[in-house]
Amino acid sequence: MQEQSTEASDPYYEARRAEIAALAERCGPDDPIPTVEYTEQEHEVWQLVCGKLAARHRSDATTEFLDAAECLAIPQGGVPQLRDVSGRIESLSGFRFRSAPALVPFRQFCSGLADSAFHSTQYLRHPNTPFYTADPDMLHDVVGHGNALASKRFAHLYRLAGEAAARVESEAALQFIAKVFWFTLECGLIRERGKSKAYGATIVSSYGELNHFRDADIRPLKLESLADVDYDISTYQSILFEADSMNQLEDTVGSFWDTCDDNTIEALLAESAAGLVQVP
Question: Is pTM, for the whole model, over 0.90?
Answer without folding.
Answer: yes
